Amino acid sequence: MDMTPLSGMTRRRFLGGLAAAGVAGVAAGCTDDATSPAAPSGTVGDPARWQGAAGPAFGLGVASGDPTPTSVVLWTRVDPDGGTVPSDPVDVRWAIATDEAFAAIVAEGTAVAEPATAHSVHVRAEGLEPATTYWYRFGVGDERSRVGRTRTVAAAGSDPDRVRLGVASCQAYQSGYFTAYRALTEADLDAVVFLGDFIYELEGAVDVRPHGMVVPSTVEAYRAFYELNLRDPDLQDARAAHPWIVTWDDHEVEDNYADGLPGKFGVAQGETPESFVAKRAAAYEAWWEHMPVAVGPPVDGALEIYRGVDWGEMVQLSVLDTRQHRSAPPEAGTANLPRQFGGGPRPPEAFAEDATMLGADQEAWLGERLRTGDARWTVLAQQSILAPVNRLPDQPGGGYSMDSWDGYVAARRRLIDAVVDAGRTGAVTIGGDLHTSVVADVHRDPDDPTSPVVLSELIGPSISARETLQDAPTAGARSNAHIRLYDIEHRGVLIVTFTADAARAEFVHVDATVPDAPPTAGPTYQIDAGTPGARAV
Fold first, then answer.
1. CB-based contact 437:490 (threshold 8 Å)
2. Which helix (H) or strand (E) holds 361?
3. Cα 338 to Cα 324, 404, 521, distances in angstroms
4. Could you read off the pLDDT of 273-293 as tens digits, one per residue?
5. Which domains occur in the chain, in start order?
6. Residues 97, 98, 99, 105, CA torsion sign
7. How far apart are CA 92 and CA 144, in angstroms?
8. Taking the CB of residue 271, how many other CB atoms lie within 10 A of it?
9. % of the chain at pLDDT higher than 70
10. What is the pLDDT of residue 343?
11. How confident is the model at residue 153 (pLDDT cuts 50, 70, 90)?
12. In sequence order, what are the residues at sequence separation of 6 or more whose Cβ sits closer than 8 angstroms to the Cβ of residue 10?
């Protein structure tokens, strides 16, 4: 496995450099809007003003995300435990440079951290060069943040030699350590794609790291869960090392929710659609406050997060939202929602033509994007496994999860139709959610294994959340002919490298229950260009 750091740096040197540089006053230029551009100032700042150790005001770290060929979003939040957060707005200085010593600053300015948004900062630095590595930093008063490193994407029409993406999901603090991120921090990546469950709102029965927190329902309570996770040093290092492209799943709000409907645990606790909508709005606000995204903030409790990131003619990445707009799943409004492969035929609602995972607007956006793109590789970043998974094949009707695309059969068909009709032979879907590593073929007709394979599916392992599936459903899933890998035992990350010839998927394993457990190489699969379907290598 290639773990070469960017620019030849070792992890120790990179992390040491992040702690060694500093911050000071910056040139004029303000923004308090995540989507407001901050163009280069045209001057080179004084490197001495940006030297020094990081201070406690930035104890939640720094991050970057949603890169374009000429811009990137820079994020931080002034730490409530740092002792410097007043109830008033705070001026936060920032700078971005082409070197880690900040001798060549290309943009700098001041952003306003508002108390209404937890003193979070989203700056979009613009006027950058394509496919270029940058370093950035923040400051408040005499305090400085650590240094972050980021990278823009290749320009439209260019043809990069390769694009390498780290894939992560499902980080339950109470279930284990986030040591798997060390493999991503050390790797030479173009970006990290995070596919949901950044927090786990559950109190948790598995307590490797007990946190003592209760299920949240207010924005303040959700913020506390993000603060908990963001104090993890391995997560902080990975967020500082690469640009992140993030989406959400369900645990950022509530397990197995759908659109404005609570999940089964919420239903069991007496939640109504009316009370849940307020809870979801609080959760979306807290998510946005802590993510380096170019969208938002939420308006009226809603936030559109589906978007695209392209690397020239190599990769077209579409980031999807399968939670906010999905229609009610079968058995909605009961404590059975959603039925998890309990056996028996799927209910008629699973086959309803008007059922949707994406919503009409997102489906139309994705269809147009697929038709107009020309990249070699079409990558769909989404939460739920697309391929059918019959976990009880020996029982009449089988055993399917209604919380996945198996509960939205017509919507899955429309998605596959869009890929095929656009002529996308290099289509790959990457996902999380399952706490399970999966490699699968997606057939033109998912229920007909004799039909052609049209997509390849890669599901990465969870960072720390455990899979508790029993032996019979696990064995049943592994018996599905189109599933090449179904590994519930390992935690870790996935690294996917796209070249003109192939997409190479490398699984990395870590024992998340042991502090400082070293990463080990898991299996590797390859998808040859123009030939859907993965094979072990």
1. yes
2. helix 360-372
3. 16, 9, 35
4. 999 999 999 999 999 999 999
5. 6-151 (2.60.40.380), 162-536 (3.60.21.70)
6. negative
7. 10
8. 18
9. 87
10. 65
11. very high
12. none
Separation in Å, CA 106 to CA 26, 101, 135: 12, 13, 10
Nearest to 191 by CA among 237, 264, 241, 235: 241
Kindly provide the residue ranges of all beta strands, DSSP E only, lying in 424-515, ordered along the sequence.
Answer: 427-431, 437-443, 453-459, 483-487, 491-499, 502-510
**Distance (Å, rounded) from C-alpha 332 to C-alpha 339?**
10
CB 72 within 8 A of CB 150: yes
- Please name the residue that has the structure tokens 């998605």: 415
3-state secondary structure of 80: helix
Whether 139 has a pLDDT exceeding 50, the answer reads: yes
State phi, psi for 137 to the nearest 5 degrees: -160, 155
Q: Which of 244, 17, 28 is nearest to 135 (CA)?
A: 17
Answer whether 310's CB lies under 8 Å from 317's CB.
Answer: yes
CA atoms within 13 A on the CB side of 14: 25
Neighbours of 486 (CB within 10 A): 22
R_g of the chain computed on alpha carbons: 22
φ, ψ for residue 288 (rounded to 5)? -60, -40
Q: Can you tell me the mean pLDDT for 30-52?
A: 53
pLDDT at 43: 46
- The sign of the dihedral angle between the CA atoms of 438, 241, 463, 255 is negative
pLDDT at residue 340 tops 60: no
**Which pTM does this prediction carry?**
0.91
Q: What is the per-residue pLDDT across 372-407, written as a single tens digit (0 to 9) for each?
A: 999 999 999 999 999 999 999 999 889 999 999 999
Per-residue confidence (pLDDT) for residue 202, from 0 to 100: 85
Residues comprising the chain, all counted: 537
**C-alpha to C-alpha distances, 351 to 282, 338, 363, 438, 480, nearest whole angstrom:** 32, 15, 18, 24, 21
Q: Collapse the DSSP code of 6 into the 3-class scheme (helix H, G, I; strand E, B; otherwise coil) and give the result.
A: helix
Q: What pLDDT, on the 0 to 100 scale, is given for residue 37? A: 53
Question: In angstroms, how far apart are the furthest CA atoms of the chain?
Answer: 72
Burial zone of 37 (CB within 10 Å; 0-12 exposed, 13-18 middle, 19+ buried): middle
How many of the other CB atoms lie within 10 Å of CB of 55? Answer: 21
Residue bearing the bigger pLDDT, 16 or 338: 338
pLDDT reading at 449 higher than 70: yes
SS (HEC) of 132-152: CEEEEEEEECCEECCCEEEEC
